[in-house]
Design a protein that fits this description.
The protein is of the alpha+beta class. The protein contains 8 helices and 13 strands.
Length: 432
């Protein structure tokens, strides 16, 4: 057997095994076709033979008890791969069959023999529909044509059985996928419910935190002012007589100052999230000037360049003023000692929003921390003592309440550029 023939045989066998017919019950339909074949031929015996690697499998028979035999002994295996029918009124007169054990008497005494190959739509012969008799017999052209038809019916039944099996497998896969989808849907529903409950709880916690921050900030600020006043009185009396006590008092006063600044930052954070957000048309340039007025004591030689044609925005002016004051204040606070502080405030139209930028040439924010700095109490340099990690969190809350976004990036040449967006031409959604 050459390579081409061997390869074809491998494909033929693969096609045969794909039908899953060998060693399985034939079924009523195939048995009926074999009986009809014997009737059409006018002989007592008929069989449906399948040829695999080494044997002839008689899937169903009529007129005799079938069995498996070696492929080398099969009469059907001699010519079935040609795709043509074999018609022998007397097999003993054909040298290709005269010495076959089914003819000689070893397995049978076949004289009349007719077989129609069972050829798949892809052109592979699986076996044959065979009718035979122990006596010489002849067929008419009409009989031969009908036997060919029956062979095609058998192949069609093979195809239908295979398709039914494929459909069943597909249906099983669909059921499994549907079950998996139902499980996933149920999991998603639970996750959604848990997320919703978490959001409700988070909102409640935020409201309580805002209320707590507001109350605590107010309640702590008043006694600290009193304590600071008494420390100033004590300092006046002991500063000259007891320098060491004066140093202690100075440390206490500075600590109170830090605490007051922290309380103020907490109060501003609480107000940014709890106070009503009332958008209205506001000139961004005026809000920048108001923020600079509040920061005039911290400018200390810094240059602040404000874009001359800043737009009119649709926002809560009080909150945006607080936002700008925090951002410009940070730029002043985190300036570099080796060069004069330079700050630029600008804005540009970008689709349906304004992009407002506050850029400086200060110490900058490491790339890995540019998202984290908007989290509560996050500081780039905790040891510097220059902040509490609340200012940018407050900015985040203000921008969120206006339906915008805020990000930190690097200024070309070094420093930090903070960009926040605000909607154009419509009131931002107020979140209470």
């Amino acid at each position: 057997m050459n390579e081409v023939t061997a390869a074809h045989e491998q494909r033929r066998l693969a096609a045969l095994h794909e039908y899953e017919l060998l060693d399985t019950p034939a079924g009523d339909e195939l048995e009926a076709v074999v009986r009809v074949a014997a009737l059409v031929a006018g002989v007592p015996n008929a069989t449906l033979n399948l040829i695999d690697e080494s044997r002839q499998c008689q899937l169903t028979t009529h007129g005799f008890e079938g069995s498996d035999t070696a492929r080398s002994d099969s009469m059907c295996a001699v010519r079935f791969e040609t795709g043509e029918v074999t018609y022998l009124p007397d097999a003993g007169l054909d040298l290709a069959f005269a010495f076959n054990p089914w003819v000689t008497g070893l397995l049978g005494r076949v004289r009349f023999y007719f077989s129609a190959p069972l050829v798949t739509p892809q052109g592979y012969a699986l076996g044959s529909l065979c009718v035979f008799h122990t006596e010489r017999h002849e067929l008419t052209d009409e009989q031969i044509a009908r036997l060919k038809d029956l062979a095609e019916v058998i192949v069609a039944l093979f195809e239908r059985r295979r398709q039914a099996r494929a459909n069943a497998e597909l249906a099983s896969e669909v059921r499994e996928q549907h079950e998996e989808l139902e499980v996933a849907h149920a999991d998603l529903g639970r996750a959604h419910a848990e997320k919703k409950a978490t959001i409700v709880e988070l909102r409640r916690s935020n409201r309580e935190l805002e209320q707590f921050a507001g109350v605590v900030s107010h309640d702590l600020a008043a006694p600290l002012t009193v304590v600071n006043g008494y420390l100033e009185l004590i300092e006046e009396r002991v500063a000259r007589a007891d320098p060491e006590s004066a140093r202690w008092i100075g440390s206490s006063t500075r600590a109170i100052g830090r605490m007051q600044r922290l309380i103020t930052a907490l109060l501003l954070y609480a107000r940014a999230g709890h106070a009503p957000c009332r958008p209205e048309p506001a000139a961004l340039g005026d809000l920048v000037e108001q923020a600079l007025t509040d920061l005039r004591g911290s400018l200390d030689g810094a240059t602040v360049v404000v874009q001359p044609d800043l737009p009119t925005i649709d926002a809560d002016p009080t909150l945006i003023r607080q936002l700008l004051q925090n951002l410009i204040g940070n730029s002043l606070k985190y300036r570099r000692p080796d060069r004069p502080c330079h700050i630029e405030v600008s804005a540009r139209h970008d689709g349906g929003q304004w992009r407002v930028s506050v850029a400086d040439n200060g110490v900058g924010i490491p790339k890995a921390q540019r998202e984290k700095v908007f989290d509560m109490f996050t500081q780039v340099d905790p040891g510097s003592g220059r902040g509490h990690g609340i200012g940018l969190s407050t900015c985040q809350r203000i921008v969120d309440r206006h339906g915008g976004r805020i990000v930190a990036a690097e200024t070309p040449g070094g420093g930090t550029t903070v960009v926040f967006t605000l909607p154009v031409g419509q009131h931002a959604a107020a979140v209470s």
